[in-house]
Amino acid sequence: MQRNLKIDFHTHIISEEFLNLAEKYGDDRWPSLEKTCDCGANIMIKGKKFREITDQAWDTEKRLEDMDNEGIDIQVLSPIPVTFSYWSEPEQGLELARFQNDFIASITKEHPKRFIGLGTVPLQDVDIAIKEMERLVNELGLKGIQIGSNVNGKNLDDPELEPFFQAANEQGVPLFVHPWETLGGERMPRHNFMYMVGMPSETALAAGSIIMSGMLDKYTNLKICFAHGGGALPYLLPRMDKGWNVWPHIRKTENPPSHYAKLLYYDSLVYDENNLQFMIDRFGVDQIIAGSDYPFLLREAPSGKVVDRLTTLNDDEKNQIHGLNALQFLNLDKEEYM
């Protein structure tokens, strides 16, 4: 009997020995790690605390203990999005990307049955990003790339970025889009709205940009997954379809937006059974991948809890979302992990 595989697709990791580029380059916009104790640290930006993190963010043994306690077989590791640093000089951004890619690859090589790695690239320079994509996949063995939802205010359908998506399509490299530098950030300093409102809105804009761009007609091998259930996208799709129908001059696609939304992937991090059911109705079971946002406070614990609570799913469908869809998205042979 084939066992049920549980993969947490959406987790973040950072090295305890994180590079201090703020000090090296005399620029406090770089994120740096300031330890507060053996069990925690602050991510600092511009001399201020950006985010508190615990040792779960870097301690592999602590992470494995949590996985065992929560019944998670595999975590997919990706960088913390604030470290994208797309604003930086490309060569400096590459320095940080290579450091993180090397670090994540070292964890996956040490625990190949428990961790799968996603890398990062300096998207502010597409040529450099493509070269690092080739290195992290072909030399380091990472299985995909996490990218931000915009690049210095440019949406993902910006013509300058298209060669990167073309290369990902040609090389079969899956992309995980995570919100960062959210739209309307200046209006969200209170109530932690950046996390609760800004990120879902930003994700919808990123997904909408891909959907409306025409790239999914052109690059049929392109695999893209969006964090946080696609943000507000599932709710906005009928309005996008209406706009596509009434404004022919904006059309760059052969079909309406809802058609392309079903070609993309989404993590299951929506917390609520009704929201997950809505996603399934919009996108289909095959396109949803369990993910928790470990180890942050807004994470779902354990990953896929909302999947297990949804009574309309049968066991095979739950197994798809818990693990098999992740392997499919990452182009991995399930026999190696089952």
Our count of domains comes out at 1
SS class: alpha/beta
Give the biggest beta sheet. Answer: 8 strands, parallel
What is the CATH architecture assignment? Answer: Alpha-Beta Barrel
Task: Outline the low-pLDDT stretches.
Answer: none
DSSP E strands, number: 11
Please compute the radius of gyration using only Cα atoms.
19 Å
Integer average pLDDT? 96
Number of helices: 12
Kindly report the name of the CATH homologous superfamily.
Metal-dependent hydrolases
Q: Secondary-structure element order, as H and E?
A: EHEEEHEHEHEHEHHEHHEHEHH
> In which range does the helix fraction lie?
25-40%
What is the top-level CATH class? Alpha Beta
What name does the CATH topology carry? TIM Barrel
Dominant shape: globular
Pathway: Secondary metabolite metabolism; quinolate metabolism
Enzyme class: lyase
Organism: Virgibacillus natechei
Subunit structure: Monomer.
